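quick one, 147 residues, struct below
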Amino acid sequence: MKIAIVSGKDEGPSKLNAFDNALLKAGIGDVNLIKVSSMLEKETELVNLPKLKAGSMINCVLSTITSEKQGDKITAAIAIALGENLGCVVENSDINKDSEDVINDSIAMVKYMMEKRKEEIQEIIVKEEIHVVENIGSVVAAVVYLE
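---
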């Protein structure tokens, strides 16, 4: 299995447009995203996001948050834990919470998921996107399943 981790942030004239613009910045704005749960196959390979065919159906784990309040600090994070037999993904987001706390909470959750599966963690990867809202802002972070 191949995956890519992407993130983006942007503003827009409406919540929907801000979200769509953040998806475009992440490189996944021209595809149809299918939200899936949080499991990865054995020997998952992390790759750069290839050019995706416009309109294609793409599985992903998506973390997103949008705010209309000027000055809000919004954070979206993805944490991946890879083990010998499987991997787990956690999505997490918050408004006006210290970004390091959002990241640490994500790591704690993914460690717990692996522990419950009695899977030893070989690697943890975290990707976050942080934005201070000017008008209407949105952030996204996603694991995109490529196979």
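Residues 2-145 form a domain with the Pyruvoyl-Dependent Histidine Decarboxylase; Chain B fold (CATH 3.50.20.10).
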